[in-house]
Amino acid sequence: ATSIVLVFLLALFGVNNLYLKSAFSNTNYVKATFLAEEGLEAMRFLRDSSWDSNITPLALGTKHSLVFQSGTWQVSPATTFIDGAFDRVVVLSAVYRDATDDIVSSGGTLDPNTRLVTATVSWLVGTATTTKQVSTYISDIVD
Q1: How far apart are CA 46 and CA 55, in angstroms?
Q2: Cα(12)–Cα(30) distance, rounded to whole angstroms?
């Protein structure tokens, strides 16, 4: 009877350990998802503030960090870590449209008033880097 109870307790501890590992890794994944979404919202804020001042000068295909200083979002070339663990970068890409004004992945005509924004959040899990990436389009809708 003691052996059966011992085997049952060991199995229970193993399941509990697996659950805790899963819960902690899921917490970082959820945080990373929120940080990536926040990056997209920050880019929308910058777009709404001034497309010409905040979006147009940013180099396409270059990693940009976002910082919240003096009550506003700003783009920074320096790498910043959030909570000491998460690295968030935003990359803007050119957008091309076909003859029917649909966005195309290749060919087409450059749309200077639209950008593809990709926010990527990376963090370490053990010795491996894990990433979460979300994308959206922003357009100069004010002018």
Answers
A1: 7
A2: 27
Note whether 54 and 46 are within 8 A (CB): yes
Locate 140 and state its tokens. Answer: 């100069």
- Give the DSSP letter of residue 61: T
Return the structure tokens found at 64: 């940009």
Q: Is 12 exposed, middle or buried (CB count within 10 Å of its CB: 0-12, 13-18, 19+)?
A: exposed
Q: What is the pTM of this model?
A: 0.80
* Phi, psi angles (nearest 5°) of residue 133: -130, 135
Q: What is the tens place of the pLDDT at every residue in 36-67?
A: 999 999 999 999 999 999 999 999 999 999 99
In angstroms, rounded to a whole number, what is the distance separating the alpha carbons of residues 41 and 142? 16
CA 33 to chain centroid, in Å, comes to 6
DSSP structural state of residue 59: P
